[in-house]
Amino acid sequence: MHSCIPSHFRVFYRRTAAGKPLCYRSMPRLSFIRIFGSEKSVSTAINNAAEYRTIEDDIMTNYKDLGLVNSKELFKKAVKGGYAIPAFNFNNLEQLQAIIGACVETKSPVILQVSSGARKYANSTLLKHLAKGAVDYAKELGCAIPIVLHLDHGDTFELCKSCIESGFSSVMIDGSHHPYDKNVELTKQVVEYAHKYDVTVEGELGVLAGIEDAVSSAVTHYTKPEEVEDFVKKTGVDSLAISIGTSHGANKFKPEQCTKSPDGVLLPPPLRFDILEEVEKRIPGFPIVLHGASSVPVELVKIINANGGKMKDAVGIPEDQLRKAAKSAVCKVNIDSDGRIAMTAAVRKTLMENPAEFDPRKYLGPARDQLKSLYKHKIINVLGSNDKA
Ligand SMILES: [Zn+2]
Known about the structure:
Elements: E1 10-15, E2 21-27, E3 32-35, E4 38-41, H1 42-47, E5 53-54, H2 55-59, H3 72-81, E6 85-89, H4 93-106, E7 110-115, H5 116-122, H6 124-141, E8 147-154, H7 157-165, E9 170-173, H8 180-196, E10 200-205, E11 209-212, E12 215-217, H9 225-235, E13 239-242, E14 247-248, E15 259-260, E16 266-267, H10 273-282, E17 288-290, H11 298-306, H12 319-326, E18 330-335, H13 337-353, H14 360-383
Bound molecules: zinc ion.
Zinc ion (ZN) binds next to loops.
């Protein structure tokens, strides 16, 4: 219907009594809009917003209509309360069931996190309905926990905009691989758009090593504490991911970077709490985010390898270090690889023990149960977000 209208025209319309859209268009320079044959000012039409909608409004799904919340209040409470909100990645039904089940049973708020790869995998229309379904499912299970739908590692303005238009309540714009000024510019652009719709934005300073979906870096670039104040002020971001030695993926460190515990477990170099403290000093009370914070549970890796898997030299971040971080200004901890490992361990074990099985529910069910118990453990013993919903 609007394909003939140049993009710089703002389109207003209202519906007839029969519900059919009557289309009118305005040119900003002329400052008028043709309404039912008469001419009225654009401001009149805008003031009458309940009656007139723009095309932008019409194609947009606001997260509030899905029953979601943004992260603002959750982070405020988490920083004050000395705990962190779990950000669990998902792209399918069983993961979502496990996440909501674990969070309802522990009464934890939750950030449902989707990478651009996961969005492509699951389909953005389905995701929107899955997120709304998650809100209703939590209520049905007996606790209307606060749920955020968040884009993980958005790399362009367009991707962030598209997510906001399809119901995300929070987005990350990761400009950390750009030079500082370009990172500021890109992040600011996303913040200006997102805040129009009350959507919260996470930025990043410093680069994590490791590989996760489309994000990868061979080496760590620690966050420079002297940049954080300027970055937060110039961009207006709501939270900041920093690099203090966590790392993406399951193979976070090479064995030669690690020491060995008495029982032969590889221990990574400790997190740089000195950088975290320096950041906190410069932006007191500002919400900090940790990526690459999977612990890579040894017992699950053992199950995978005992059942035909080949996960070699997998090393994670010890949970006591994450617990310590969660008590500080760190108020969001991303957990993705641990969930993948938990599901894979259960699928491998089930299929190995039942080689004749071919009903996906028979191996995805145990995978979902394993994931749920891992998430409950994270919430209660690592993040401390239980009973905070
Ligand atoms: Zn990340």
